[in-house]
Write a structure and sequence with these properties.
Blueprint: H1 2-12, E1 15-17, E2 23-25, E3 59-63, E4 66-70, E5 73-75, E6 78-79, E7 82-87, E8 92-98
């Protein structure tokens, strides 16, 4: 939004009329086109089904069309020690396996 506002400012304020009708030249500001010319896909957001249970501070990884959501906690006293699996192809949550309880609130590096 800032870039748009700055570009709008450059285009609309390059010349202003003063009270007598004269065109008064104002300084122009040239912006770098660093990211303007990079091609990027237009991605559409899709709504996912809600997760099976609420969790805070879990970890997840996507492998092909499956998302694995590890551990996390429901409350400060209730720690999850399992993995839930989300299938992006069928847009469903299914599959679950247990983790060792000691690994319930640890960070994963995959």
């Amino acid at each position: 939004m800032l870039l748009f506002a700055a570009l709008h400012h450059v285009c609309s304020n390059s010349q202003r009329e003063d009270v007598k009708g004269r065109k008064e030249r104002t300084p122009e500001r040239f912006l770098s086109a660093t990211f303007a010319d990079l091609p990027a896909p237009e991605l559409q957001w899709e709504e996912m089904p809600p997760a099976l249970l609420p969790r805070l501070d879990g970890a997840s990884i996507q492998i092909k069309y499956l998302q694995y959501v590890f551990a996390g906690c429901r409350t400060i006293d209730y720690v999850h020690s399992h993995v839930d699996i989300n299938n992006f192809t069928s847009n469903t949550w299914g599959g679950r396996f247990d983790m060792p309880k000691e690994m319930g609130h640890s960070h994963l590096v995959l």
